[in-house]
């Protein structure tokens, strides 16, 4: 792999969260992806809207050839609308996205490991996520130590203890 650089998302790049969020959505039928407007649904918008304004908003990006290849970010939820992997108001939810040309190259694993290490240094106790059943990324999360905590018809809620 060419030189991969992982860094914090710059505040002037926050508007790119809309584009990154769309890439984070798992499309079970690649031939018929969801319309881009799906990111404006309240239960999706909560992950990216006004990013940088929340006390726990933090995002790392993977940069390859001076282009953002992907991102991993955390956010806690205190408002009425919560993330799909919500556990409690102290537990951040993590999300990850890789742009198509950069998938299946280990970049997601590196992003997740960097974020998990950063969270440990900041004293976070745990982190959660929501993943659609059938999404192959579940294997990545399991390798990193996430455990299925709960499920509904469509998704698993997974949790990783950091301490």
Describe this structure in words.
The protein has 163 residues and is an alpha+beta fold. It has four helices and seven strands. A four-stranded antiparallel sheet has the order 1-2-3-4, with helices on both faces. Strands 5-7-6 form a three-stranded antiparallel sheet. The longest helix is centred in the C-terminal third of the chain and has 15 residues, at 107-121. The protein is globular, with a radius of gyration of 15 Å. The chain starts with a strand and ends with a strand. The model has no long low-confidence stretch (mean pLDDT 93).
SSE topology sketch:
Elements: E1 4-8, H1 17-24, H2 42-45, E2 58-64, E3 67-75, E4 93-98, H3 107-121, E5 126-132, H4 138-143, E6 147-151, E7 155-161
Antiparallel strand pairs: 1-2, 2-3, 3-4, 5-7, 6-7
